[in-house]
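Margin note from the TA: students keep mixing up input and output lines. Inputs are the sequences; the output is the structure of the whole complex. Example:
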Amino acid sequence: MKISTKGRYALKVMTDLALHNDGEYIALKDIAARQNIAVKYTEQIVSVLGKAGYVESMRGVSGGHRLAKAPSEYVIGDILRTMEGQLAPVGCTADIKGTTCPMSESCSTVSFWRGLDKVINEYVDSFTLQDLI
Amino acid sequence: MKISTKGRYALKVMTDLALHNDGEYIALKDIAARQNIAVKYTEQIVSVLGKAGYVESMRGVSGGHRLAKAPSEYVIGDILRTMEGQLAPVGCTADIKGTTCPMSESCSTVSFWRGLDKVINEYVDSFTLQDLI
DNA sequence: GGGAATTTCTACCATTTTAGTATGATTTAT
DNA sequence: ATAAATCATACTAAAATGGTAGAAATTCCC
């Protein structure tokens, strides 16, 4: 029952960008140094965030990254789901690839898991990046 | 963000025992067959449940397992924590081996994670085995 | 146009966790 | 004695995790 470092670090990176959200591009190595993450690993994380449209990047000498939107427009749940995939705590509630567990009809634990799924997602969707800074 | 099969199967095993809670010992292979889990894997799970005092076992020909208490006395959160360890979604809130993350003071995401930890544990602690059957 | 700083892309890799399997010993009822 | 069951321990294949490494592409500045 763990959020991987991908999700945790992504949140750190996004809060770092939000705290330096003055329109300038911020170099990856500065973010990595402040958040104590390996530069090369930070690259991978920012790459995913960029493809999701959450950050804008600029190459070259004074390049770097910056937020694409205002901090209040980022829902934390969206960021985590982007990095982690579905936050569903068990596969049988998730409808992954359109397949559901064949026992789900008769399984008395399924509704319990669906409920857990719900409280997790409601929680992470109740915060924006603005709330964290 | 997943509950492992250990936790999921443990809940299945416990509900199976709760549904056949007539004081008789129930053979592992019957549980395994009904719940569609490999017998040998079920052994490992029941072993942990037994060491935690959740099930009573009897060896020999007409042996098996049964609940040690009434279904309403089992808190689901306890069962899951027994199988999975702490349910804390990120390590930095967990105090594992007495070590906390050195950045936790300055990390603005920590309180967010603590909150997630809280809603998860409150949810799983709000159900008993009786509620699932 | 050249060089330096930076992102971007692709591949690789060691360790840990997960989800079992396998083997065999021990206990108990009949 | 024997069959049926739990109990204990070791092993293993596959996947996920948490990174590293190297080089190419882009941009700015001189």
